[in-house]
Amino acid sequence: DTEVTQTPKHLVMGMTNKKSLKCEQHMGHRAMYWYKQKAKKPPELMFVYSYEKLSINESVPSRFSPECPNSSLLNLHLHALQPEDSALYLCASSQGITDSSNQPQHFGDGTRLSIL
Amino acid sequence: KNQVEQSPQSLIILEGKNCTLQCNYTVSPFSNLRWYKQDTGRGPVSLTIMTFSENTKSNGRYTATLDADTKQSSLHITASQLSDSASYICVVSDARYGGATNKLIFGTGTLLAVQP
Question: Phi, psi at residue A55, to the nearest 5°?
Answer without folding.
Answer: -105, -40
